[in-house]
Amino acid sequence: MSKGVVIVTGAGRGIGRSCAIMAAARGHAVVVNYASNAAAADEVVAAITGAGGQAVAVKGDVAVEQDVLAIFAAADKLGTLAGLINNAGVVDQKSRVDQFSAARLTRMMAINVVGSILCAREAVRRMSTAHGGKGGTIVNMGSVASVLGSPNEFVDYAASKGAIDSFTIGLAKEVAAEGIRVNAVRPGLIDTEIHASAGVPDRVERFRDLIPMKRGGSADEVAAAVLWLMSDEASYTTGTTITVSGGR
User: Which pLDDT score, from 0 to 100, does residue 205 have?
Assistant: First the structure.
């Protein structure tokens, strides 16, 4: 019997993929959201269903409100929403602030910040006891960039994740008495495809010696922290952030 539906945004690859597969392994029906790569999302669904789980792939850009509504409508068809993993996010090419365009900034904030808030809004509308829901959990995906700043590379990305830090604290306090726990995970340098999309595929290797553990992390290691926060073992934990960064 399903433990309820979990939506994982940006679940076609990397950390989102690991979160989706791990959530399914823990008994959740999973909505595998993706923005454009249908093949990758279908592969995640196949991995879940092949292991006896339940999942559907749902296309949608979290920065577009109508797409967000469609993602949650698909979740409603699967059953009662139990959790949201706000994982979808983008990074742009390495650049200094004095080279940023308005278009770059608008895209970054629309997906990383507005998209996360819109998804959380819809999750609260379904899970909050104030709306007749049964409670649930939200885990936002932050980044150690929010405390390191990412100078000369991704200051805008760092700023977007700083917004996620603040949003996590505020929403957690807002819905704590309504059966919803809200937390975040703050990954460090993780071996995923996001570095290649930013034009620095060797970034983890280049910065490895700055990490006390002297290695990059894996998507599964981040997902394990996410799923712990969603579990009953974290029943008294809300408004907090777990940093998964090898000590950096």
Answer: 74
